[in-house]
Amino acid sequence: MRVRVLGSAAGGGFPQWNCGCSNCNGLRAGTLKALPRTQTQVAVSADGSQWVLLNASPDLRQQLVQFPEFRPSRSRSTPVCAIILTSADIDSVMGLLHLREFEPLRIYSTASVSRVLREENTIFRVLERSSPPADWETIRFGSPVTVAQNRAAEDGLVCTAVPLGGEFPDYVRRPLAKEEAVIGLELTENGKRLFYAPTLPVYSKEVKCRVAESDLALLDGTFWSDNELVEVRGRGRTAREIGHLPLSGPGGALEELAGWARGKRVLIHINNTNPILDEESAANRAVREAGFEIAHDGMEFEL
Amino acid sequence: MRVRVLGSAAGGGFPQWNCGCSNCNGLRAGTLKALPRTQTQVAVSADGSQWVLLNASPDLRQQLVQFPEFRPSRSRSTPVCAIILTSADIDSVMGLLHLREFEPLRIYSTASVSRVLREENTIFRVLERSSPPADWETIRFGSPVTVAQNRAAEDGLVCTAVPLGGEFPDYVRRPLAKEEAVIGLELTENGKRLFYAPTLPVYSKEVKCRVAESDLALLDGTFWSDNELVEVRGRGRTAREIGHLPLSGPGGALEELAGWARGKRVLIHINNTNPILDEESAANRAVREAGFEIAHDGMEFEL
Q: What is the ipTM of this complex?
């Protein structure tokens, strides 16, 4: 299985257009040792020819154009065969609108996320323009689904949804099944296992087990501290209040995961305010010493 | 008045992720003399400190980050003070979702376009997160509105809506006032005049007069020929059928506008299939000989 990180930042990217925090200003001025990052986007392939997108980021056009393997082979075509959505957040779904160019796509999500997009938002009907129109498939807990056949073998990429807790985004109007708001994905192929959870409100026992069983876990690295966003904005909600367990501190992700991994653990969905982005910071060193890698755009793994 | 072209391509950009036409392939291979282009986005400023966006393109994050004058001056801030929408097309409105980072914004559109976004699409409620929430102002024909005060003088940037004909996008569900589907914008400041019409189904007498009276007209340059898109896709609708008068041929834009301009005429919203993108093509030479410039990302005008 190939896993390609096309984007690694949280909502807004790094730098963020309206943010003058020390990270964003330092990156713009060239005084910070850090890489710019587009918004989180991961692509997975079992056979290197068909690719499955994990979510559809706001920067997806830029990300698709910059990755040479996504070039079309025929007049109108794409190696992207499917998209799996983990939530209805703008970060996860906005990029579907980049994919409006008459390309038949398969989109996997929970029934609730599909209802938000298809019943509360007519704009996603642009995906029906293709012939055949977009095919929306429902992901159910306890029912693994084969999202892409491996053309070179009998098997394929199998996806299992993992409940994570978390809330629907604030724009959602109608009450829906809360356990379907935010899911993690376990993707297996040929005995290898990827666990994907870019938004993690809490490390449940099940989540810890999935991390421990995976060859590669891409995990929520949004915030270093609970109060980080409040300090920059001067008001607002904490990391935990918006569904992201911070990395540091008592009960933070570093502490929670200590001793729970055998494979690679990589932090992704990193907010522009997070000090781990500064490669010379103490926070950056601390997460690496705790056994984590820090995702950047263009990072690739072969499992 | 400063006018900055942040993006100049039609929907999908150039190259387009799923397009293998000779233009897109030539650009990717480096064999075509042409510039890559993001999707059409223009910014206008009366005083060089506050900027008004004309539409909100799907590539807006990338465009804002790449233009140094859009850097925030304070912890959280932006020189973007308003957005004027000319239609409800994805090309025009998707970028509003890039602007979801708690920044109070003013958005101008016709009542119908506002209804599509606010009543048929809950996702745009993310713009209500800011404090104060986004302020939606209605543009009415015959009622010019001051969209940004010039801080250095008594006057400001005044916007007049011009009916262009055209249709609502296919995702719109409810019947609406058809004349409000697609508008052109005339922006005046200190005696100077910009006319903006990136989508033009027909050159009416009024449109020709606006072009003739403007110091700068940014005009629909989507397609060279009526049949261009059908030839690449192998099916589908013609340029005229999707609301874009082609540049060439009998009744095309070059013929329609002959003799109707005193200021600069610049083609924008150029589709990836359009041969004018090839700087060595006969079509490129023909539009320049007819007195048109061809927009590219980063182009700027001072009126």
A: 0.95
